[in-house]
Every structure is written in C-alpha cells, then in structure tokens.
Amino acid sequence: MKERKKRLLLVEDEAITALAETRFLESIGYEVLHVFSGEAALEAVTPEIDLILMDIDLGPGISGTETASRILKKRELPILFLSSHSSQEMVEKVRNITRYGYVVKNSGYFVLQASIEMAFTLFEACEQQRQTLRYFRRAEEVSAMGHWRMSRDSEHFLFSEGAVAICGLPAPLFSVAKFRLLVLPEDRILREQALERAIRDKTTYKAEYRIARPDDGRVIWIRSIADVEASDEIVFGVLRDITDLKKLENPTLVQPYGVSEKNHYYNLFDESSLPMFMLDPEDGSIVDANRAASEFYGWPMAILCQMKMADINILPFASAKAEMRSAVKLRKNFFFFCHRKADGSTCEVVVITNPVRIEGRSYLHSIIMDLYSPQSEELEKARRYWYLAEFSGAVVWTIDLEHETLSYISPSVEKVFGFTVESAKKLGIRGLLTPDSYDALMADSKREGPQIGLYQHYRSDGSIADIEITAIAVTGKACRCCEIVGVSRDISARLAAEREIEKLNDTNKQLFQEVQYRIRYTLLVIADLLKIEEQALTVETAYEALEDARKRVSSLSVFYDKLFTFPDYRVVPVRPYIEELLRYFSSQSKKRHIEIEGYVEDLTMNIQQLFLVSILIQELVNSAGKHAFHNMETGHISVTIIKLASSSLEVVVSDDGVDTDEETHYPSAIGLGIITEVANMLSATVESRTSSGTTYKIRIPLSSL
Q1: Judging by DSSP bridges, how do beta strands 173-175 and 156-159 pair with one another?
Q2: CATH class assigned to 7-134
Q3: 406-446 pLDDT, tens per residue?
C-alpha cells in the first residue's frame, strides 16, 4: 500500500515567500496547504494535517503565537515557527507555546528541511511519552496509589495526579515546608527521621503518618514507601490512603483530630465570629486560635496551632517582628497586613493587637478583620486616604487667601521636594514657586472650576522641578473666595522622558530612512549585476528569464525610492507611487514605442497592501510588454485603479495588442504563480478576456485592505 504523503499547513501572509516555500516543500515530498491568516489556519486544521509551519507576524488579525496556542488547546501536533527575526526576545515569545523549533526565514531551505524532520522525530518521541503517561495514570487509578518525588536540594515535592487526589493538594508542585505542616504534630518527627535515615543510609523509606487534607480538613492515614535513586539526588516514592485499614485495626487511631481540651482564656475568644489568635511575642508562634480563624484561613485548628504568623503574614519576618515589638510596647496596635490562606490565595486584613498576661505569661491577643467586610468599611476608607497621602507622590495643600499663608501642606512635601512641613509653611506658596509660576497660579485660580496647569517649584537643594498643579478656589461666606485647595505633582521625570522619547523617535526615523536607502541601493546593485549577466547570455530563454528577474528587482527599488517622499510611511497615497512605477515601465520599453498610461483615484493604503498591488501591476504590465505587441512598433497599455460602489477596489490592466492565441497573453509560469498567490492573499478575483487586446480585471474586497 502506498504510504500517504505527510501534509503540512503553511501559515504565511507574504505571498512570494509562501509560493517559494510551497514549491520547495512539494519538491521534497510533502503535501502543502497554504493559508494567509491565523483565522484561516484555525479552520484549516483537520486530522489530515501532520505539521504546521507558522509565521509569527501575520499582519492584521490574530498573531501566529496566539493562533498556535488556540490550535494546541484543540489538538496536539508539531508547530514549527517561522520568523524574519532572530532576536532572543522573539525566541522567548514562542518558548512557552511549543518547543518543536524556530526557523529564521533566511536560514536556507536545508535548515528548514532539517528542522521539519527534527520536529516530526521529536513529536513522535513526545507522543510515546504521552502514551506512557496515560498508562501510568490508569495504573494509579486501578491501584488507588499516588507517586511523588523530590530532589535532595529542592524545596518542593512533585506529586502525581493520584497523589494530589489522595492528599487533597491544590497543585502537583507543593512546598516541602507546607507539606510538613499538613502532617499531624505527633507523627511529624517520626516521618522526618525515617526520611532522613533512608537518604543517609540509602535504604528504603517506609512511614505511616496522618495528614490534615488542605482541601476539606479531613484527617487521613498515609503509608509511603520510597527509594533514593542511584544518582543519590532524587527520592522517588509511592503513597496510598490506609485510613480504612487503620479503622479495622484500631478505630481509636482515626478519630478526628480536633482542638485540644485545654481551657480557653475567655469564652469570647472561643465563640467570637471574628478570627482571633494568641501569639507568642518572641517568635510569633500561634499558641491558640479560635474556630473562626480556622474557617477564615482554611487550616484545621490543630494545624494552625503548630504554625507561626510568618507562615501566614507575607511581610518579611524582620518587618513583622518589628511590628510585634510595637504592639508589645503599646506604641501601635492597629495594622494593615496581607495574609496567606491554606488554598494559596491572599487577603488584605486589619489586625488589632494588644498584649495580655495569662497565668503569669505574656501573649499578644490579635483580632483579624477582612478588610472588605462590613465591619471594616470605615477602616478601609481610612486606609485608602492614608495610602493616597503616603504613596501617591503628590503634595496636597491649602492656601488661606486672606492671610496669604499655607494653612495646610501634606507631609509628602518632604519626599517630593525635600522641605519639612514647618519649613514649607514658613516659605508659603510664594516662596515655593518661582515668581512667574506664583503669578500664573494666582491668575488661573480666579477662573471658575478646577484648573490644571504646568508650573515650576523650588526644591530644598535650590534646583527647580517641573510640576503639574490641579487647583480649585473655594468660596466662603458672602461668595468670597477664601482659599485655594490644590494638589502638586512633580512631573520633571515625565517631561524628561517625553523629551527623550521624542529624541528617540527622531533617531529611529533617521535610522528607518537610512535602512530604506540601503535597501534601495542594494536592489539597484543587484539589478545592475543582472543586467551585466544578461549581456553575456546568448540563449534567448535564459536571457528573458534574467531580464524578468532584473525588472522585478528594479521595480522594488522604485518602491523604496518613493518611500522617502511619504511623511507617514504606514499609510501612503496610491497615486504618486503607481504613476512613478508606470514611468519606470515606460523607460524600459525604448526599443518599441509602447505608451503606458494610468488613471488612479485618490486612495490610501498601508505599505504592505500597496506593495502587493504593485506586484500584480508589475507582472501584468511586464507580460503585456513581452507578448502583446509581436511585430508592432507601437502600442498602448492602460492601468486603472478605482473604488467601486460594491465596497471593492478594481485594478484593470489592458493593452491594444494583436489578438493571437490566448496562451500567448498569459504571464509566464512564475509570473502566473506570483499573481495567483498575491490575489489569494488579497482575497481578490482575477478575470481576463481577449478582444482587441487583452484585459485583466482584478477586484479586491476593501475588507482585505
């Protein structure tokens, strides 16, 4: 039976590049389906596609990377990325999507072929690995077991799906320290000693212990067996839930592990609906916790009472300890913290802490309130205003117009401008602003409503800062303006950045023009070299092929030459460029008097679109010049570009050459291939007719432009 050819999906928006790549891939035995966009690629992915060659930059629409991500969510298959860029940034962009390869377009066809073969080999290996993993998961389900492993120098366990389900873990990668907290205190030391002994003596690790599952708080018995691998770096083990077995052996061993029976300090502590802790002020250990705390944080009470506040508070330990000292010394008892819960999420809380003495020992009694609960609504408002004043980078002030003094200025004036509140008030707004800025502010404040303006403000070191002031005049009794309330922001850095950006834009524009100039110069050199080779050829077909190539290169130089004259290179007018292109064509037909004229409406396109349309015109005009005027000294070629009422663009290329066999009017095989690819890229239709010459009519939907 004949083996089916492997089918490739080529996603490439450059028509010429796609044509060349398709021909090469077909020549080495692949079937190729070509599409121009990510949207089309999503529709084209069928079970018959074996590999995708994906251009990263696909122009308008979804990008190549986004297209690849969507495809891989539906089906696993190799995707090889193509790009004109070889930067590390571009490689990193695709690294997390798929790792079957990245090919720079100008690397050569040998590299492309080798990369495709390597991608197929890698995919087959990965498919075998995925199949093995499926068997592994099925084996875990049947045996009701889970697997785990850890590196000796790692801080995490890696659990299989079966182990995650047994232990109630939130994710396969789980901290060693956190797992230690799940183990009940009386089993913890024996488990750790057994593991350390197995690693040290290179013997089999066996342990039975209880854990409190983090998802539901249920306590279960675990039996775990592990070996240290030969490398002495990896510990690989299995575990299973033996709770039912333990019940049969001794029912008393699996009673729920609840709160200790010791007396609580107050009934209020135990019954309060607010989370509460009793803390050791020395190291932040949680001495006791109420039921509300267990429900709020998600850990069983037995686990909470083995933890420290450092396990919950994301603040660095040194900072948290400093806050505890403040509470012990009664300097501060009101705190805003971000706390960690058992499921890994975080929450913002208000903590009210006071020192207490019970049975001769000192503790910290902490009450926790969710910052977004109704009880702490007022505290949240206070927190917002405090953060605004401390961290907005702005200075709030009020001017008493009657006494011409600063009646208020926020402490942030010291951070922003270097003045203390006292020194700023002493200077007043007149002394803080430059004279011209002070006069301008007073004049602006007389206008109705809020005023925003740019002014200059002194710093404490004598330098001057550019600032933005938002101010409003407040009217008092008798409709008199009694004060001005304002906010000042130092925008010196922003203005400097804007100036730097403007400078960089000018530099980039110059670099862009230099690049275009060098491209144009290179194209002209290539055209001259092709001209030299033409003159040395004696075989007519070879001469014509080289002449066609030279004309294509020369017309590209016209494109880059005209690019310099457009103020905005992203969207350019069509008429000046097409007229220049037609003048170039006329200059190439000096042996015969072929008149080339054009009519182009006032239209604009982006450079990519205009480039594609010019390729169509070039191929059709070149074909007419070669085939339409046999034995004729004169002739006429017309090019028309107009916008139709049917929301489409019409490009018409016609000649008044002789009516011969229709085949003679068609472009060459290469030219016809180029026309077909470009037309497909533009979603265009191409019609031709032969009557008193040849006319090609191309209609391009405006939606594709």
Answers
A1: antiparallel
A2: alpha beta
A3: 888 887 888 889 998 889 988 998 999 999 999 998 888 88
The two structure tokens encoding residue 686: 């191409």
Sequence-ordered alpha helix ranges (H) in 362-420: 377-391, 412-417
Q: What is the pLDDT of residues 266-282, one digit of tens each?
A: 455 666 778 889 888 88
Q: Which residue has the tokens 């994906």?
A: 54
Per-residue confidence band for 455, with pLDDT thresholds at 50, 70 and 90 = very high
Which two structure tokens, joined as six digits, stand for 506?
Answer: 């000018």
CATH code at 267-384: 3.30.450.20
- What CATH architecture is 144-254? 2-Layer Sandwich (3.30)
Q: Are strands 173-175 and 205-212 parallel, antiparallel or unpaired?
A: unpaired
Which amino acid is present at 229? E
CB 564 within 8 A of CB 513: yes
The helix-helix angle for 64-74 and 88-95 (nearest 10°) equals 20
Beta bridge partners of 395: 488
Q: Output the six-digit token pair for 327.
A: 């509470």
Domain ranges of the chain: 7-134, 144-254, 267-384, 392-490, 569-705
Question: Are the beta carbons of 229 and 236 closer than 8 angstroms?
Answer: yes
Q: Which CATH superfamily is domain 392-490 in?
A: PAS domain (3.30.450.20)
User: What token pair was written down for 220?
Assistant: 């279960």
Write out the two tokens for 87.
Answer: 């930067």
Rg, Å, the chain Cα set: 39
Can you read off the two tokens belonging to residue 77?
């298959």
d(CA 323, CA 309): 12
- Hey, which residues does 454 pair with through a beta bridge? 468
- CA end-to-end span of the chain, whole Å? 47
Give the amino acid at 450.
P
Q: Each residue of 618-666: pLDDT tens digit?
A: 888 888 877 777 777 788 899 999 988 778 889 999 988 875 554 455 5
Domain 569-705, CATH:
3.30.565.10
Tokens 């450092």 sit at which residue?
310
Domains 144-254 and 267-384 share a fold: yes
Could you tell me if 415 and 394 are in contact, meaning their C-beta atoms sit under 8 angstroms apart? Answer: no
In this prediction the pTM is: 0.45
pLDDT at residue 389 is higher than 50: yes
